[in-house]
């Protein structure tokens, strides 16, 4: 049985590593592998940890690690999340039994990267707590950590400039999502921080390819294009919304005080 | 933090207390302690037969003193004389036999004799499972104390396992308070032995049956044990899920509540919910015992400081001025950290983190402190914009230890967007120009500050109302006869008083 899975896994990896992987075939292979895994004795709930079981567990871990890579290639985020959580149980719950996987840093870094790209920062920190200290220096994890710091500091331009400098091709997918966010944030910041800015600088800040893109963006955001410079007009609609929110808060609080006072008296 | 403190911090609130109390009162003699334990056993039996749980809790409150002064041999004799049938008894006797007599009771042999004599006087009179559990818990406590730091903890583990199994097999409401204690030590002993990863399912089972039996004491204790377990493995996700699904019982001891609040705060802090975390920590500090429990209070204070810094506030100077020297020493690194954050001095911050890195690691605050970097940046920027009307971005980069002027520009831009400073950037000139800060009283800040205070006061009031104790409803449900008897009695009393008054008046007339 194990040999079946092993050869299947080798097939799947070979297909994935080929320059133009046939993704439909990979998916089919993965499904077959998963079915084969259900028949391994060591993976049954409540199985005792014999030497055979340990090697079977390791095999299952390898299968799911490969599945994570396949999910990235097919750009299927729900399946990515599912497979990462499967792999994590092998990493952490069997930490004393299984030898550390060589790809652990890569996968955990990728998962952190996903949370950053989805702007789920609270979960990012929860996940980060789980990453063992020795893995924090791993290039993939460190990359995600650095990105998070740059994001909180606001160094969006640095992120955009280094967008193609990813530790592994698999990071590119999330990096693209992140770039969209970073560009939007930069535009937001520029709007508030500058009165005027010339087009070339803005183009560089946003890492846009040519100045026409800047013009389109200016149209969308209501900036005034004045020759080669851009003037950021005061936009009050945002402040009105903030004001309304403040008033609602104030009303809510006052009602609360009234209610509590009523109860005391 | 010194090693001793770390050790203390492992058991918040409980094991720390002995040290303080030992100094306060001279150790009682072996005879008096034997007498006290015997008295306690009788009290427990009385409490059980009379269903008066207050007597039981009074006995449990005095446990610390007994724990510090009883010798293993005396306890072994008491356990032997107790009529109970369980494996736990055998385990306890076997374990106690291996324990050395405490150094303080030099008359160990002597006390042994006293013990045997005492036992023969009253052979196996007590037989309630409650008093048996009480003695066994004492045995566990002694084992924990004796094995502290020792690697061989298997005997203690066997003992608690047997004890918990024994108590779980009994379904008696009068046992609740004792079961809770037993589970506390169950989790503690396993943690000391390093086998606490495997007890989660056992704890979950205990939680479930405690909930079904409405055994709030055990419910609270087990829930805290579970949270502690998850947090020690950094499984904040699971801890959070448990918190959202398992409500903490309303009626519970203050110590358990303080612990619970502390664990909740830990989880919330990791999830960036700093204001909630801070509220929990402040409440935990208030609910914790004011004397003793130094390790717990230190940990709460440390967390509160870090979380408060993360919210953007600076802790009060008085937070660091605590009377207890070990706690003050433990807070010292955090004082330095606060100083760095307060003035927004990036180099001082980096230096402090490097210097006290090991301490922060030990306290488990390292990753939280890592997040403070951003706060230092913000404060530094605010200071710069307050002191200069115009400053070049290169200077900003230098002051805030940023790699380049370009990055400084981006950081400043974000700070302006987030409302940290009021300024504009001139890209051509390469500098930042501060604009006048608006009227601070015009914004929502004053009302926010006012609101936090009002909420705090209302909270205290509501808690106080909830903590009021009312007379038992049972007393009022009298039977008709009893009511009649009481009325008659009152009438007689009134008559007597009236007579008395007449007497008084008569006395008065004499003068």
UniProtKB/TrEMBL annotation, chain A:
GO terms for cellular component: cytosol; nucleus; proteasome regulatory particle, lid subcomplex. Keywords: Proteasome. Residues 78-248 form the PCI domain. The keyword Transcription does not apply. Transmembrane segments: none annotated. InterPro entries: 26S_Psome_Rpn12, CSN8_PSD8_EIF3K, PCI_dom. GO terms for biological process: proteasome-mediated ubiquitin-dependent protein catabolic process. Belongs to the proteasome subunit S14 family. This is PCI domain-containing protein. It comes from Porphyra umbilicalis (Purple laver).
TrEMBL record, chain B:
Coiled coil: none annotated. GO terms for cellular component: proteasome regulatory particle, lid subcomplex. GO terms for molecular function: enzyme regulator activity. Keywords: Proteasome. Residues 103-128 are annotated as: Disordered. One of its GO terms (biological process) is regulation of protein catabolic process. Pfam families: PCI, Rpn3_C, TPR_PSMD3_N. Residues 258-439 form the PCI domain. InterPro entries: CSN3 (IPR050756), PCI_dom (IPR000717), PSMD3_C (IPR013586), TPR_PSMD3_N (IPR057985), WH_DNA-bd_sf (IPR036390). SUPFAM superfamilies: Winged helix' DNA-binding domain (SSF46785). Belongs to the proteasome subunit S3 family. PANTHER family: 26S PROTEASOME NON-ATPASE REGULATORY SUBUNIT 3, 26S PROTEASOME NON-ATPASE REGULATORY SUBUNIT 3/COP9 SIGNALOSOME COMPLEX SUBUNIT 3. This is PCI domain-containing protein. It comes from Porphyra umbilicalis.
């Amino acid at each position: 049985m194990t040999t079946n899975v092993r050869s299947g896994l080798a097939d799947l990896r070979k297909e994935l590593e080929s320059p133009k992987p046939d993704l439909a075939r990979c998916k089919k292979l993965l499904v077959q592998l998963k079915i084969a895994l259900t028949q391994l004795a060591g993976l049954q709930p409540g199985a005792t940890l014999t030497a055979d079981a340990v090697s079977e567990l390791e095999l299952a871990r390898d299968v799911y690690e490969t599945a994570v890579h396949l999910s990235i290639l097919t750009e299927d985020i729900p399946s990515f999340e599912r497979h990462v959580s499967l792999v994590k149980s092998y990493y952490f719950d069997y930490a004393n039994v299984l030898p550390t996987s060589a790809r652990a840093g890569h996968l955990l870094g990728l998962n952190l990267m996903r949370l950053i790209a989805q702007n789920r920062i609270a979960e990012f920190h929860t996940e980060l707590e789980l990453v063992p200290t020795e893995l924090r220096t791993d290039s993939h994890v460190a990359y995600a950590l650095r990105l998070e710091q740059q994001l909180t500091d606001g160094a969006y331009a640095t992120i955009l400039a280094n967008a193609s400098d990813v530790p592994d091709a698999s990071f590119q997918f999330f990096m693209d999502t992140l770039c969209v966010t970073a560009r939007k944030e930069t535009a937001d910041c520029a709007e508030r921080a500058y009165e005027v800015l010339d087009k070339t600088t803005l183009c560089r800040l946003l890492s846009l390819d040519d100045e026409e893109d800047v013009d389109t963006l200016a149209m969308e955001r209501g900036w005034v294009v004045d020759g080669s410079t851009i003037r950021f007009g005061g936009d009050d609609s945002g402040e009105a919304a903030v004001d309304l929110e403040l008033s609602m808060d104030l009303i809510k609080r006052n009602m609360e005080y009234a209610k509590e006072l009523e109860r005391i008296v | 933090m010194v090693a001793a403190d770390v050790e203390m911090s492992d058991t918040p609130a409980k094991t720390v207390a002995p040290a303080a109390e030992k100094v306060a009162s001279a150790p009682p003699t072996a005879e008096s302690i034997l007498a006290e334990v015997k008295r306690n056993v009788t009290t427990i039996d009385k409490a059980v037969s009379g269903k008066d749980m207050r007597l039981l809790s009074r006995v449990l409150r005095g446990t610390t003193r007994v724990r510090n002064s009883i010798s293993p041999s005396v306890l072994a004799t008491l356990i032997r004389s107790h009529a109970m049938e369980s494996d736990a008894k055998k385990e306890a006797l076997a374990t106690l036999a291996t324990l050395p007599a405490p150094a303080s009771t030099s008359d160990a042999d002597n006390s042994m004799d006293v013990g045997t004599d005492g036992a023969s006087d009253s052979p196996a009179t007590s037989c309630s499972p409650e008093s048996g559990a009480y003695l066994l818990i004492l045995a566990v406590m002694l084992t924990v104390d004796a094995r502290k730091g020792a690697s061989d903890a298997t005997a203690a583990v066997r003992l608690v396992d047997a004890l918990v199994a024994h108590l779980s097999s009994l379904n008696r409401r009068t046992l609740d308070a004792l079961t809770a204690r037993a589970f506390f030590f169950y989790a503690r002993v396993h943690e000391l032995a390093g086998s606490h990863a495997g007890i989660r399912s056992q704890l979950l089972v205990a939680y479930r049956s405690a909930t079904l039996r409405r055994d709030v004491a055990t419910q609270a204790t087990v829930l805290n044990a579970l949270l502690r377990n998850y947090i020690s493995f950094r499984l904040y996700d699971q801890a959070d899920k448990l918190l959202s699904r398992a409500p903490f019982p309303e009626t519970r001891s203050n110590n358990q509540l303080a612990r619970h609040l502390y664990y909740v705060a830990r989880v919330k802090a990791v999830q960036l919910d700093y204001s909630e975390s801070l509220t929990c920590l402040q409440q935990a500090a208030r609910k914790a015992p004011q004397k003793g429990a130094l390790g717990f209070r230190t940990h709460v204070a440390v967390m509160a400081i870090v979380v408060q810094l993360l919210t953007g506030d600076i802790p009060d100077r008085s937070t660091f001025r605590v009377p207890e020297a070990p706690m003050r020493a433990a807070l010292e690194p955090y004082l330095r950290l606060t100083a760095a954050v307060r003035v927004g001095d990036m180099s001082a911050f980096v230096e402090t983190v490097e210097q006290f890195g090991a301490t922060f690691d030990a306290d488990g605050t390292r990753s939280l402190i890592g997040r403070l970097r951003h706060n230092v940046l913000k404060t530094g920027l605010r200071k710069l914009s307050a002191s200069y009307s115009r400053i070049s971005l290169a200077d900003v980069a230098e002051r805030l230890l940023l790699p380049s002027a370009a990055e400084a520009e981006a950081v400043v831009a974000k700070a302006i967007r987030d409302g940290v400073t009021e300024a504009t950037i001139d890209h051509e000139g390469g500098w930042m120009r501060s604009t006048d800060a608006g009227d601070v009283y015009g914004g929502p800040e004053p009302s926010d500050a006012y609101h936090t205070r009002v909420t705090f006061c209302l909270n205290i009031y509501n808690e106080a109302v909830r903590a009021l104790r009312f007379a038992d409803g049972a007393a009022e449900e009298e039977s008709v006869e009893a009511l009649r008897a009481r009325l008659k009695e009152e009438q007689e009393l009134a008559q007597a008083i009236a007579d008395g008054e007449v007497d008084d008046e008569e006395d008065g007339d004499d003068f």
